From TrEMBL:
Domain Molybdopterin dinucleotide-binding: 623-723
NCBIfam families, alphabetized: Fdhalpha-like
InterPro entries linked to this entry: Asp_de-COase-like_dom_sf, MoPterin_dinucl-bd_dom, Mopterin_OxRdtase, Mopterin_OxRdtse_a_bac, Prok_molybdopt-oxidoreductase
GO cellular component labels: membrane; oxidoreductase complex
GO molecular function, one term: molybdopterin cofactor binding
BP-aspect Gene Ontology terms: cellular respiration
Region (Disordered): 599-620
Record flagged with keyword Metal-binding: yes
The protein's name: Oxidoreductase alpha (Molybdopterin) subunit
Keywords: Iron, Iron-sulfur, Metal-binding
Organism: Altererythrobacter xiamenensis
Length: 734
């Protein structure tokens, strides 16, 4: 146990350079160079780079636009095949491996299958695998199935997945965004009429202020830090809002900048606010209150381009500073200092992550971010706007092309007209809804394309039970993960090896969080027996619906899929000839450089919501816990067990304010147990960290043992970032 919070740890720097070099050496310099230089979109975060401008190059032509996450993402793909001998072990033995150990067994290169009730997977051939796949869905009623995609799959595979599912007869089609930024889509839709970023990458070079709210890009989007440093270099400001004082957001040594490395890093945050977990709306009301009291609202913009302001203004006026201070744990002076920086800004960008969306009021959190932007006219012009920091490299694209339970009426009409079929009308399950149905015994077959749905789902015990109650599960993946083992005992389980993005047989496309669509060439051959996701889906469609209206076999050609997307999905018209023109593009009608809002009357909406209850400081042995990702992971993939930025040596740790550690008498070497209404974590190492008193942090997905399946009623997103827990100090042993 460590009670230190004052740390000289910085983000980036030599340790990250050395880590990246060691990873490159481990997977081979030639392999790494070939992968990173190829014309393929980066496999890591939604910031995006690569594509037709060349590997390690972004849409502005900046080179090298690469980070350790890019290399990490390649490291699991550039592995030797899993030895056949691994599958001689029982599922119970595989379940003893850590997530890191499972991911690093090697690449899955052969289909494997487990009969219902069996204890082991068997290696089978592709023909047997495809026969099993088609037969199980053929005998399943469509509404007793669901189809799921991660955000790493291509637009082509995603479109084919949702088209197949709907032609089969179900709208139970979902994706990982329901566990991350669905709250963003709901909130921006209700305020400005579009669900994605209003800015492009170039806008960041024109801004003089960037808010970073509920996010830790120093670990999760490292190249975004370079953009933040650019703002500071131009004399601008960065306001960080995060309960945790993340070292990489305080100071970061940019590996591509020799000067930054030599001087030991650069300051990133001009102002760092640490509100209590769950008190964000109170803080946003405080910032708005300061702006209104000082007369810094943009009255002409509000009058010409918005609606709902008067109700919003009255609510802010009636909210007292004493309530705001009590809720947030921040002083009026601290909030006013941040508001003053915003007041003097001429072009501000608001960025945020899952620290905003992972609450039962996540949609309202984002609505209030939009309120703050509208208050000063910071939406609808160059250099200013709204920027959700997306996770996976194509999570936004997967939603764009229709991997979701509800399609727009215009898309439905185009699909029905273009393919000559009637789509199902019954309401489909979102991600949590799919698992709830499975837990209730209402799902007989599920097809999961990439990802780790088990690890991503809250309440691990419940998630395992839900998956175990599905009669037949089919996975498409490059490596094994805990999601393939948990819940695999009772039903049949088929796992199919797929090509990584840079191994695709034909070019694919991906969409970044800036609405920028890239073309990835694919073409690298590492393992001869793996197949593209599209090839598997096309074969499944041909076998499952041989007399149907759609010629699924034709969709083995990606150009045919892109033609279908261009004809049916608004904004994606330029996709049709991207493989010929090699011209990458922004999705149409997404960027907002003019205040032309996509609402019915063209006006943006101020939203007025009550302040959520329960944000005040917990007492005694009760705490509010948020789950976090470490420096050595990406989403649920674990690359290393230690967290070099936060100073933890094991993921089985809880980060606490040193005052709480002292108050509870936790001694050096003692461990603690956390208990929630959903589960417990025993034997955790308590580590001192700069978080508000009464708040604590634990690593995801391990801490999903504590999280709840309760969801935001509007976005259906679980509250991974706000869990009430009780702490007990373990007795010493030895």
């Amino acid at each position: 146990m460590s009670a230190k919070t004052e740390s000289k740890t910085i983000g980036g720097g030599a340790k990250k350079v050395l880590y990246t070099l060691n990873t490159v050496r481990r997977i081979g310099i030639a392999n790494s160079t070939k992968a990173l230089k190829a014309n393929n979109a980066c496999k890591a975060c939604g910031l995006g780079m690569g594509g037709q401008l060349g590997g390690m190059t972004n849409e502005l032509g900046e080179f090298p636009s690469v980070c350790n996450k890019s290399v990490q993402a390649q490291s699991t793909d550039i592995q030797a095949a899993i030895p056949d001998e691994i599958f001689a072990h029982d599922i119970s033995e595989l379940a003893e491996l850590t997530p890191h150990q499972l991911e690093h067994l090697g690449r899955l290169t052969k289909p494997i299958f487990k009969e219902a009730g069996d204890e082991r997977f068997q290696i089978i051939g592709w023909e047997d695998a495809l026969t099993i796949l088609a037969a199980n869905f053929a005998r399943t009623a469509p509404d007793r199935s669901f189809f799921y995609s991660s955000g790493r799959s291509s637009n082509e595979a995603g479109f084919l997945l949702q088209l197949l599912a709907r032609a089969y007869g179900t709208n139970n089609i979902t994706n990982c965004s329901y566990y991350c930024h669905q709250a963003t889509s709901e909130a921006l839709g209700s305020t400005i009429g579009t669900g994605t970023a209003t800015v492009e990458l170039a806008d960041l070079s024109k801004s003089d202020l960037v808010f970073v709210i509920g996010a830790n890009p120093s670990s999760n989007h490292p190249r975004f830090i370079h953009q933040l440093k650019g703002v500071r270099d131009r004399g601008g400001d960065v306001i960080v809002i995060n309960p945790a004082k993340e070292p990489g957001l305080v100071k970061f040594a940019i590996p591509k900048s020799p000067k930054s490395m030599l001087r030991g890093g650069d300051e990133i945050a001009s102002c760092y606010l640490q509100p209590r977990i769950g008190s964000d709306i109170s803080l946003f009301k405080g910032l708005a209150k300061s702006l209104l009291e000082s007369g810094h609202e943009d009255r002409s913009f509000i009058a010409e381009h918005t609606a709902g302001f008067e109700e919003f203004r009255r609510d802010i006026a009636s909210t007292s500073w004493s309530i705001i201070e009590t809720d947030t744990g921040l002083s009026q002076a601290e909030i006013e200092e941040a508001a003053a920086l915003y007041a003097r800004s001429k072009s501000a960008v608001f960025s945020w992550g899952m620290g905003m969306t992972h609450h039962l009021h996540g949609v309202e959190n984002i609505e209030y971010i939009a309120n703050l932007a509208l208050l000063r006219g910071m939406v609808g012009r160059p250099g200013a706007g709204l920027l959700p920091l997306r996770g996976h490299s194509n999570v936004q694209g997967i939603g764009t092309i229709g991997v979701k339970p509800v399609l727009g009426e215009d898309v439905i009409r185009q699909i029905e007209k273009g393919f000559g079929l009637k789509l199902p009308s019954r309401k489909g399950f979102d991600t949590m809804g799919s698992l709830q149905a499975a837990h209730a015994g209402e799902i007989d077959a599920a097809l999961m394309m990439g990802g780790n749905l088990y690890a991503a789902t809250p309440n691990s015990t419940w998630a395992g039970e839900a998956l175990d109650r599905i009669g037949f599960k089919a996975f498409m993946t490059t490596t094994l993960n805990a999601g393939h083992i948990a819940g695999a005992r009772r039903g049949e389980c088929l796992i199919l090896p797929v090509a990584a993005r840079d191994e695709e047989w034909e070019a694919t496309t991906q969409e970044s969080m800036f609405n920028f669509v890239r073309l990835s060439d694919g073409g690298i051959i590492r393992h001869a027996n793996v197949r593209p996701e599209t090839d598997i889906l096309a074969e499944l469609g041909a076998r499952l619906l041989p007399e149907g209206a759609i010629d699924f076999a034709a969709f083995r050609k990606h150009r045919r899929i892109r033609e279908a997307i261009a004809a049916t999905v608004p904004g994606m018209e330029d996709l049709q000839h991207i493989d010929v023109a090699k011209k990458e593009f922004h999705v149409r009608n997404r960027l907002m450089h003019k205040p032309d809002f996509r609402t019915g009357d063209g006006l943006a909406r101020f939203k007025t919501r009550p302040t959520p209850e329960g944000a005040t400081k917990p007492a005694g042995n009760s705490f509010t816990l948020a789950t976090i990702r470490s420096e050595g992971q990406f989403n649920s993939i674990i690359y290393e067990e230690r967290d070099s930025y936060r100073g933890t040596q094991s993921r089985w740790s809880v980060l606490m304010n040193p005052q709480d550690i002292e108050r509870l008498g936790i001694a050096e070497g003692q461990t603690v147990t956390l208990t929630s209404d959903n589960g417990r974590m025993a034997g955790l190492t308590a580590v001192g960290f700069d978080v508000p008193v009464g708040n604590m942090l634990a690593y995801y997905p391990e801490a999903n043992a504590l999280t709840s399946t309760s969801v935001d009623p509007r976005s259906r997103t679980p509250a991974f970032k706000s869990i009430r827990v009780d702490l007990s100090v373990d007795e010493r042993t030895g």
